[in-house]
Amino acid sequence: MTVGYQTAQSVPSSRLRKLLASAPVRIVMVLISFVWTLPSAGLLISSLRPANDITASGWWTVFSHPFEASIWTIENYVQVLTAHGLASAILNSVLVTVPSVVIPITIAAFAAYAFAWLEFPGRKLLFTIVVGLMVVPLQMALVPLLRLYTQIDLNGTFLGLWLAHTGFGLPLAVFLLFGYISTLPGEIIESARVDGASPLTTFTRLVLPLSVPVIASFAIFQFLWVWNDLLVALVFLGTKEEVIVLTARVAALVGRRGEQWHVLTAGAFVNMAVPLLIFFSLQRYFVRGLTAGSVKG
Amino acid sequence: MTTSAPAQTPPASSLSRLTTGPLRILVSLIVPLITFLVLRWAFIFMRDANASKIAVGVVALVIGVGGVWALYLVTDNLVSILPDRVRESVRPFVFVGPALVILTAYLIYPTLRTVYLSFMDARSQNFVGLENYAFALTSSEMLLALRNNVLWLVFVTSIVVSLGLVISVMVDRIGRWEPIAKSFIFLPMAISAVGASVIWKFVYSFQPIQRPQIGLLNAVYTALGGDPQGWLIIKPWNNFFLIAIMIWVLTGFAMVVLSAAIKGVPGELLEASRIDGASEIRIFFGVIIPYIRGTLITITTTVLIMVLKVFDIVFVMTNGQFETEVIANRMYREMFSFGNYGHASALAVILLVAVIPVMIYNVRSLETSRR
Q: Residues B139, B110: one domain?
């Protein structure tokens, strides 16, 4: 930033001075990063220790003899996945999450395209209403929907939960996708129309492929939201063994009397594994998606 | 033409090529009928699922994902048989229709209904006027929850935003280590609130005085000479131990957004101030802060909204016991523990009323920043 300004001075001393000046900042940053990571590190390490060790000594004691094989075990993971039913909860979470991401994206993309490029009466008003619904916290919908679901037997079904996540995710999805799709160059869309392409063709062949970046961002956001969600899943899916999702399962483990830390730590890490994987592999989209989606109701 | 559609959707384009005139119309009517019947069958199959979970899962994924596409392709095809005049004015509604139907069912209708229910008794049978609101705003338990929500709002928001700001300024100056430091601090954002709660429950874990402390906080505290504490049951300070969790989660988010804004401050502007002899602190408050003001406001309001609706952390950590109740958790308990739908609805309305102004502000500034 200040390169031009510094060339007047002798280069080595200025570099040294710069390094010295930034030393406190570096130290503080290392400290903050350390403190921020410590709790998660403790969880990960503990989840790999034998159950008795976890309660007998702090997880940090492993560093005194970290290469002794007897202090590490994957038994906790085996146990949570089988005896505590996390394996089936993972399957349930996948069954909940995939459609809960794809359905709102599809519906929102069609709607955003229509709002951006098709003429119809009431377009502006309808769009305002759709985006305006972002202000509604999903808590507003819980009581009436729960009752409706009980009446039509949708309670405790995956279908019911997908539709709920679709409904709650739609305003934000339409808002984000519209913001992107409406800025696509009009000439392309116009020329497709002139060439005789139907709106549907224009949408599937042209608009959708061009919108991949914003769709990816929203998909990651919605994926994390649904995967990490507890409230909506508890309300509409419940805690029956056949349908319970991962977050609810882990939350139930916490509630048990007498904290079984070997189960809890491994369970929590199983719950975190997929998001962390996405975080490290798709970091850029991840950050973009989360920041764009943060206004979700 | 429909390459992106899943295999089981009707091949609308080849059909329309093969057929003409009345036959085409017939096909256009039969195909949707079949589609709707299949979707209906799938709906019932999934609802009353006694079949094996894998089977349900496969059907669920195929129908859930493919079914939506089928719906659009079929209705679009259906519209194509309409006379030219009407066709193009109907078609947009094929595109926005499903979104509007779902939003009506899942947000508009429930919102109106919740407002209505908030004036009814626990079982929604008798009109009780403002009784639920009186409970929500004056009962001692609710006053406690409201106080806690205010604590959360004030402390989480102010600390997250200022810490995020300070870190984003510092992280800008550590050169090639910047992405790594950012990853470490942003990482908690990826974790579910349930996961974060377990992590921190472990940090706050408490063992009797003679036993070795396995919780990080008590280990540090006893090493410094204190007696082990059950952090989550010390009123009112336990609230702050819960608040710390949300700060831990959200700081990285504030940092990333603010860091992007700070990088947008033009270098010439900073250089000019330095040449004018302004100190770094003056530059920070006089140049950087005014420049990123819009982002600061957005991030503050965003965090405010997230904090207002805080649920998972409290639910998992204490379930509102030991005077840590908050509105959203209380609402859940009113629904499922007490079965009082009047109270629950009134609490939801209070959340809505609190969120609306912040949210409107937020969406507006998002829209202007986009232009």
A: no
User: Using CB atoms within 10 A of its CB, is residue A156 exposed (0-12), middle (13-18) or buried (19+)?
Assistant: middle
Shared domain check, B305 and B242: yes
Residue B101: domain span: 12-117
| CA separation for the pair B99, B72 (Å, rounded) | 11
Specify whether B156 is located in the same domain as B63. no
d(CA B4, CA B238): 52
> How close A148 gets to chain B, by Cα (Å)?
10
| Domain assignment of residue B125, yes or no | no
- The per-residue pLDDT for range B110-155, each reduced to its tens digit, is 999 999 999 999 888 899 989 999 999 999 999 999 999 999 999 9
Place of tokens 């759709």: A130
ipTM score of complex: 0.84
Cβ contacts of A150 on chain B, cutoff 8 Å: none
Homologous superfamily (CATH) of A80-293 is: MetI-like (1.10.3720.10)
Closest CB from B110, B180, B309 relative to A144: B110
Same domain, residue pair B108 and B162 = no
CA A67 to chain centroid, in Å, comes to: 35
Q: Do B138 and B111 fall within a single domain?
A: no
Domains contained in chain B, number? 2
Residue of A nearest to B349 (CA): A140
Nearest CA to CA, how far is B96 from chain A (Å)?
4
Interatomic CA distance for residues B265 and A201, integer angstroms: 43
Q: Which of B18, B44, B43 is nearest to B31 (CA)?
A: B18
Report, in angstroms and rounded to the nearest whole number, the Rg of chain A calculated over CA atoms: 25
Quote the pTM value: 0.84
